[in-house]
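Subject: Interface between my chains keeps coming out wrong

I've been trying for a while to get a sensible model of this assembly. When I model each chain on its own everything looks fine, but I need the whole thing in one frame so I can look at the contacts. Pasting all components below, labels as-is. Any help appreciated, I'm running out of ideas.
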Amino acid sequence: MSSEETSSDGSTRSPAGVVRLRDVALRAGCSVATASRVLNGNNKVGKAERERVLAAATQLGYVPNSSARALRSQSTRLVGAIIPTLDHAIYAKMVDGLQEQLSALGMSLIINTSEYDLEREKTQARILVGRGVESIVLVGTEHDPDTTRYLRDAGVRQIYTYTCVVDGGDAAVGFDNSAAGRMIANYLRDLNHERIAMIAGVTKGNDRARLRRDGFLEGLEASGLSAQDVFVIEAPYKIENGIHAMQSLMQTYPRPTAVFCGSDILAAGAVKYCNSHGIRIPGDVSIVGFDDLEIAELVDPSLTTVHVPAKQMGEHAARMLSKTPSEKSGHDVHELQTRLIVRESTGPAPA
Amino acid sequence: MSSEETSSDGSTRSPAGVVRLRDVALRAGCSVATASRVLNGNNKVGKAERERVLAAATQLGYVPNSSARALRSQSTRLVGAIIPTLDHAIYAKMVDGLQEQLSALGMSLIINTSEYDLEREKTQARILVGRGVESIVLVGTEHDPDTTRYLRDAGVRQIYTYTCVVDGGDAAVGFDNSAAGRMIANYLRDLNHERIAMIAGVTKGNDRARLRRDGFLEGLEASGLSAQDVFVIEAPYKIENGIHAMQSLMQTYPRPTAVFCGSDILAAGAVKYCNSHGIRIPGDVSIVGFDDLEIAELVDPSLTTVHVPAKQMGEHAARMLSKTPSEKSGHDVHELQTRLIVRESTGPAPA
DNA sequence: CTGTTAGCGCATTCAC
DNA sequence: GTGAATGCGCTAACAG
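Reply #2:
Try treating it as a single job with all components included. I did that and got this:
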């Protein structure tokens, strides 16, 4: 049995009605090679021939088979991204920007989620390599050494995001988490807070959370406060965790007068706890978030937080990817600026 | 020049360090055909041979080249999704669930965004077909006829989400937007509200927004209220739009005592407006949202809203995709249940 | 400028 | 059961 059918107009088509390059060439009266050249913008083709090919392609609605193209040319224009989860606006925004730019640059994006698990990340990386991605966008600098090595061996470019540290990767676009932490430390100290606590994200396998915390503690030390006295609770980025962590903190003695949260999500939970327990913000306690998500403006009082340009980060990563690595000599780091957004949730330490 | 290198152990590898099936076969001491059979679960292979192949594959870290596999087998195990934007939790959650299940089922996901533009959606669909996706997940039932026809001609399955209406598609997983609208109408009427308004999403090109509105108006009519008297404002799902729309509504006379918002985002804006203008919720006005996002619980007062099982929707879509269409006779619709979540933002109409 | 030729890596038919 | 041979659709080298 033949896998082809001969339709009434004499052309030969695949069963699914998919138009192949051969069909275009047939209609244009040239060889597939010529048709291929035209469709790939190769200049060395006669004007008349070129026009006929273009016309045929349009009329037939030709769409190149990217599997074949990829197999042959070793170029897929495919990029992969492995992020912790899409169910967190800070990552969804980044991916949104990444996708948008990539699409404009003629590349496609395959996404996978790791659920903050470096093991899972490794598995997903292998899958993406199998899919033929030429680059891979990862979150943060900390990864399983196997992952990094594997990707390097496979010739896949690694772009780290939300960080400025390239380490084993090829490029990074993000911001200085440690400096952001220090900035908050200074801000709270300038408001005369002395009893300060932090609700951090889980630092295991998460360098962003760790650097934020460390930078914060460093900043406090530098201002004459002992980091020993700073109570730090770690919790996954969920509202309930913010609530419970704040509850724990409010039961310590002496109570902190300021709490820095590693994410607006945690901060929103903290605010919720205070509101429902008669703890005034910022009268009794000041709360600082991180990320500047929509919720920062919606909670009452609105959150003082650190703005993270997530979408721009994704867009910039896409642009980095569109450049061939050779254009860039060695490691390529692009630092974006975070900035403190002062709203209603912070104030001077109570007298 | 050869494109291969002979490494010290005598095996032949591609320059990029990628392991091919040939390498596995070589190490296992069999032909590529046998290796292929083993790796594809073909039964007709001797036990000893099978074990050796499996071992070799593991040791070498073999990952099949999916371009080659796709080209040969005409099966890519690739699915595409076109959603309005990732910068809206309701879609990000769905994609999160979709991706997770797809990954577990050995399929990969390419995402594209349309920004609520049906023209853009058409373009993205062509790109995805070129990428070889076997199915495509779309949001809603309303699409450019060209898109629908094109996908059908290309043999690509269309799964619609957030809706129960298949129309030109092959399957749908979602909920009854119209029924949800009616449910809210009944709920507000039971609370004795008579002056009722709505802040809807943009209905052009968005059947979900339109059905929600129409169902709501139908429900009000059925309860004896004239839809003529119901003021409806349309606005994109942005907080500021919720603020401005609420401002407009509060300047009408007589003021509505209840406002149904087509999204929690709009509702959150509405709440924010009221809070900053001394309008009591629900004392002066009741507000109902839609989606049940995290913000619904964070705003003060917390939002009465309609719960939409976005993540489950994505998960279910993935499962539908894993079944071959032939297993399902014709159109396949899966309806998920929405439910009313009553919180603090609603109460009886003021006397 | 254009056509002919030769694979990319893999699954699969056909012999054995 | 197993291996050799074939070609999926396309691009790139090589002739002409």
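Reply #3:
Confirming on my end. Chain B touches chain A through 55 residues (CB under 8 Å).
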